[in-house]
Amino acid sequence: MPVSLPDFSPARLLVAGDVMFDRYWHGATTRISPEAPVPIVKVENDEFRAGGAGNVALNAASLGATVSLVGLVGQDEAARLLTEKLSAGGVQCALVDVPEHPTITKLRVISRHQQLLRLDFENDFANLKTTGIENRFATLLDDANAIVLSDYGKGTLAQVATLIGAARSRDLPVVVDPKGTNFWRYRNASVITPNMSEFEAVVGPCPDESTVRERGAALCEHLSLEALLITRSERGMTLLQKGCPPLDLPAHARDVFDVTGAGDTVVATLGVCLAQGLDLPLATRFANAAAGVVVGKLGTASVNRAELAEALVRSDHD
Q1: pLDDT, tens only, 158-201
Q2: In this structure, what DSSP letter does residue 195 have?
Q3: Which among 142, 208, 264, 279 is annotated as catalytic?
Q4: 264 an active-site residue?
Q5: Suppose 91 and one of 57, 180, 182, 312 were both cysteines; which one would form an S-S bond, judging by CB atoms 3.0 to 4.6 Å apart?
């Protein structure tokens, strides 16, 4: 049945997690280096975007929600540019400066719309004794309708259980984009959104649909989750929700150009929908349509309200 896109302006979303500075060097490649068998790229354009939790926040803001972002950055040029980019996109930044660490940066070299190389500049935050994330997060909870926790394993969410507990004590829905194999740390979240490989790394290989559903339901029970949303690339998504039949949604991407940041778009859309009071199956349908839009774009990208509305119309006719 066709569904209209609601006005998301009343939604207030709090995003916390690993914030990244995504840099892109674009240029032409016409010859191979005489020094080594590698292409020479003449850099013609230097572009930067917000990655990780920053991309989640921008996706949510582009849908019309009020968004606050908590994360860790260094005291450097990358942090300044990142804050400017986020603020320009309508995100209210509540970032914590960590002087002894650089802002996590990923530099991608692009030629003819193909990524040739990625360089990572990072010193993760996991070993810090204290970061101030929990206090900054707590000060923003009263203004939120829902929470998204974006975990890229860089240490910002080292105390993720504390954040989940604080949010759930206020009956706020919590969406987690997980990382690694220790899903116990996300216990009591509302919904977690692993991709298929992440899910199987935790529960073991799933050779058929019945195994996916059985092990997914068991994981929900073990972690006291309300639901599990498994993203499955070209096979779409599977939502396993307590007390409800499984919901399988096919992928709706017309062209898959770049999957970078697609998971960010999924959790952002879910978070905005839950903040607006929509039920999880409908939120999942919107998230699936949004993912289909963003994989058609190069690099870390977001989906806006008009694009999502158009994608929903297309999905109704598929």
Answers
A1: 999 999 999 999 999 999 999 999 999 999 999 999 999 999 99
A2: B
A3: 264
A4: yes
A5: 57
